[in-house]
Design a protein that fits this description.
The complex is a heterodimer of chains A (298) and B (486). With 298 residues, chain A is of the alpha+beta class. Chain A is built from nine helices and 13 strands. Chain A has one domain (6-295): ApbE-like domains (T-fold). Chain A has helices at residues 33-47, 50-56, 58-61, 75-84, 99-112, 191-204, 218-221, 241-260, 282-295; strands at residues 6-9, 16-20, 23-30, 119-124, 127-132, 137-143, 151-158, 165-169, 183-188, 213-217, 231-236, 266-271, 274-279. In chain A, a hairpin with a 2-residue loop joins strand 4 (119-124) and strand 5 (127-132). Chain A is globular and about 60 Å long. Classes of the chains: A alpha+beta (298), B alpha+beta (486). At the A-B interface, strand 1, helix 2 and helix 9 of A face strand 2, strand 9, helix 3, strand 27 and strand 32 of B.
Chain lengths: 298, 486
């Protein structure tokens, strides 16, 4: 049993907060009180060993994936590999691109086995695994700039949709990005799939050789980054509307490909105040941007 | 491995962290080669002597013994508290803390203010732009020039019209400008048909590339007017050198009124009215903003019919930074002498009256009904409680000025708030901390969420994600008794 992990209820008494190293989970379950307690106990049990499991294979998980990469040992590591492998032929990607989603998914899975919750979510720093029975819904807030978390809108996800995972990626977020998107939010079957896709789409939102985009080698910022010597975005100057359109087009092409391959349900791409969406929830997501003016008002 | 990176052993990820960066958790960072815990929730610590603003990792156990939770010495600010919007739920933190024997409640929230803006006071006598001129940032209109005040130019930035009433880009740039200025960052502004300036809270303004150093106490003529009485009897003639208007005591109205006799002094430059001269030299960075190194170069020979040997002459700049004292010899040529102590005092007084030129930034916003509803079930009761001084309002622990009348419209000096106290939402609107502090009994009486009140100690246990910042000594302690407050 590890002594680092912090396990507590948030002040509202409803949500469970699990924290260990870089993993920070906010969990909420809905159902009968006894079932919720059961689910939280199961989440905690599964949680306490998860970081050690991942760290045991960390050097493998930080390496680029190919079609025939070895299978890792841990169940979370396998989820990560499975989530990124569809992209391996066309892109450099490591299993770490899906770590947050895979952890959320694993903890949610542990919670569901003992009882029948009507709804539950595990939010790992914005990468979210969902459980929804048919007829149930979640309203999910969406963030434009992860460095200044604030909602620009909400997406309603129903138990009758197949969406059980949400993830957001962008250069301002916790992880490095090769692209310039402020945020790419993806809805997918699973949290790990959403996590991998958000990373790939955010990387694709880019302009080559633009003087206003500053980049640095990932290893110069974080010596043990899985991105090694690849150039990651460190700042983006204001872009013209043409440039924004060009960068968004590139991201949209990648998102549409993922959509065609059945890897995602929808994606919303944010770049300097402009939003573009693809997929089934697109009309809904577009509505978000148009209502954002009145959504938040003191 | 790069030798300036340090290895964090807080968890098995064992990140190598470069200076100025954080590990993969975003909680531990390398600050000047030391592993430091950097946390989002700020607790103002009343340890005035302690200058650091983060809790070092290795000293964690010592810093976090029971002492910090004693209540009166620690005040939880709203920064990073998060907010619930619309505020149908109680504010994120409602904290009870023992203060002066009464159970105090601080309702901590981060308000989202779409009705908000900044008032800038820029200490300069230079012309920045005409009243009502548009102020632009990154080419977008973000505010306007308001009045000139004594020694300062005032700008109004932001407001709901620029934030949400114009184009999307105008709103985004306005929001960014307000956010950066509020968080103490420098911002470049361009005034229509006026100057290009760089402003930053509590820093000298930079106008057309030139840093403003000190506020003049007045022009040369005004300085004569202010100090004539102090010079009278101790010196026969005074010249206050200034790039705008150079003043001469014996010719000046103030000298005439005191009965200072003529001295036969002759200034170069163009005489405006008696005792006031324009353009005695070219603009520069020396005496009084001119280019002269030797003050005697602005004088022509004294009139031999009027001047007398032994005549005492003081020359001083408008900021008191430059001065020289002379006496006329037999040939009526000024020869430099030591400054007598009486005159030394007057020069020091001029200098003392030239305060550092600063740009000061006040954040102004109104707490809307829904924010107030996060504090109490009956929002208007909070307004009345604030108006009646039962509830104290602070912003990031800093005192605020509450505008009289309805609602809760307040102003706060951003430099008195902790660093990076402000955030934003893409509405666009600013997110600012706001705390309401009142007696628990009063909180209950105004319909507060008493069920949600938690003792301060519990915040510490459950939220070790808090950050300690030292209370600014100039701010009254938010929980101090009213009689101790200025």
């Amino acid at each position: 049993m590890n002594v680092r992990a912090q396990i507590c209820r948030l002040p509202d008494g409803r949500r469970l907060h699990l924290h260990d190293g870089p993993i920070d989970l906010i969990i909420e379950a809905f159902g009968l009180p006894a079932e919720i307690e059961h689910a939280y106990a199961a989440a905690t049990d599964r949680f306490v060993s998860i970081l050690d499991e991942l760290c045991a294979e960390l050097s493998f998980l930080r390496r680029g994936v190919t079609q025939d990469s070895d299978r890792p040992q841990g169940i979370v590591a396998r989820k990560m590999l499975a989530a990124v492998q569809p992209y391996a032929a066309r892109h450099f990607i490591t299993p770490m691109a899906a770590v947050a989603g895979a952890v959320a998914e694993e903890i949610l899975g542990a919670m569901l086995s003992p009882g029948s919750l009507s709804r539950a979510y595990v939010n790992n720093g914005g990468d979210i695994a969902l459980h929804l029975l048919s007829g149930e819904t979640f309203n999910v807030g969406m963030v434009e700039r992860p460095d200044r978390p604030s909602l620009f809108g909400t997406a309603r996800i129903s138990g009758d949709d197949l969406i059980r995972g949400i993830a957001t990626s962008g250069w301002r977020g916790r992880s490095f990005s090769l692209g310039i998107a402020d945020a790419v939010t993806v809805l997918a079957d699973t949290a790990s799939a959403a996590d991998a896709a958000a990373t790939i789409i955010a990387n694709a939102v880019d302009l080559a050789d633009h003087p206003g985009i500053r980049r640095a080698r990932a290893c110069d910022l974080a010596p043990d980054s899985d991105l090694g010597e690849r150039l990651v975005t460190t700042s983006v100057a204001p872009l013209s509307s043409n440039e924004i359109r060009q960068a968004l087009d590139s991201g949209i092409r990648e998102a549409e490909l993922s959509l065609t391959l059945g890897l995602i349900h929808s994606a919303a791409i944010h770049l300097q105040g402009e939003i573009r969406t693809v997929g089934a929830l697109a009309p809904n997501a577009l509505m978000l941007s148009s209502t954002s003016g009145s959504l938040v008002h003191a | 491995m790069a030798d300036d990176a340090i290895r964090c052993d807080a968890c098995p990820v064992l990140c190598y962290i470069k200076p100025g960066r954080t590990g993969s958790c975003d909680r531990y960072g390398n600050v000047d080669g030391q592993l430091v815990r950097l946390d989002p929730h700020i607790v103002l610590d009343r340890a005035l002597s302690r200058g650091d603003s983060v809790v070092p990792f290795l000293q964690k156990a010592k810093d976090w013994d029971g002492n910090l939770v004693s209540g009166e010495e620690t005040f939880v600010t709203a920064i990073g508290a998060g907010t619930t919007y619309p505020d149908y739920k109680p504010a994120p933190f409602i904290i009870s803390s023992e203060a002066a024997g009464v159970d105090m409640v601080t309702v901590v929230t981060e308000g989202i203010f779409s009705y908000c803006g900044l008032k800038l006071k820029i200490d300069t006598d230079r012309h920045l732009g005409a009243e009502c001129s548009t102020v632009r940032a990154q080419g977008e209109a973000v505010g306007h020039v308001t009045t000139s005040e004594y020694g300062s130019q005032m700008l109004s930035l932001g407001g709901v019209r620029h934030l949400t009433g114009g184009s999307r880009q105008e709103g985004a740039v306005t929001c960014e400008t307000l956010l950066n200025l509020s968080n103490g960052k420098a911002v470049e502004l361009e005034i229509e048909s006026g100057a290009r300036i760089i402003v930053q809270a509590n820093q000298p303004p930079i106008i057309e590339g030139v840093r403003e150093e000190r506020m003049r106490v007045g022009c040369g003529s005004a300085t004569i007017g202010m100090f004539a009485k102090q010079w009278f009897g101790h010196v026969d003639e005074v010249v206050v050198v200034d790039d705008h208007i150079t003043g001469v005591l014996s010719e000046h109205q103030a000298g005439k009124l005191l009965g200072v006799p003529e001295t036969g002094i002759k200034l170069k430059g163009r005489r405006s009215t008696p005792g006031r001269y324009f353009r005695v030299a070219e603009p520069g960075t020396s005496w009084g903003g001119t280019n002269i190194a030797d003050p005697l170069t602005i004088l022509a020979a004294f009139d031999p019919k009027i001047a007398w040997p032994g005549l005492r002459l003081l020359m001083v700049s408008t900021t008191g930074e430059h001065f020289a004292y002379f006496q006329l010899d037999e040939a009526l040529r000024p020869t430099q002498r030591d400054l007598p102590p009486k005159l030394q005092l007057s020069v020091e007084r001029i200098r003392e009256n030239c305060e550092p030129a600063l740009c000061t930034v006040l954040f102004m916003a109104g707490a809307g009904g829904s924010l107030r509803a996060g504090v109490t079930e009956n929002p208007v009761k909070l307004t009345r409680s604030v108006a009646g001084s039962l509830t104290r309002v602070t912003s990031g622990g800093a005192p605020v000025y509450i505008w009289p009348g309805g609602g809760i419209t307040f102003m706060v000096d951003v430099s008195r708030m902790p660093e990076n106290a402000f955030g934003y939402v893409p509405t666009p609107a600013l997110v600012a901390p706001i705390e309401f502090t009142l007696k628990l009994a009063d909180y209950s009486a105004l319909g507060g969420y008493v069920d949600h009140v938690r003792p301060l100690a519990s915040i510490h246990r459950e939220h070790d994600g808090r950050k300690h910042v030292t209370a600014k000594p100039e701010n009254p302690w938010p929980l101090a008794a009213e009689k101790n407050r200025p």
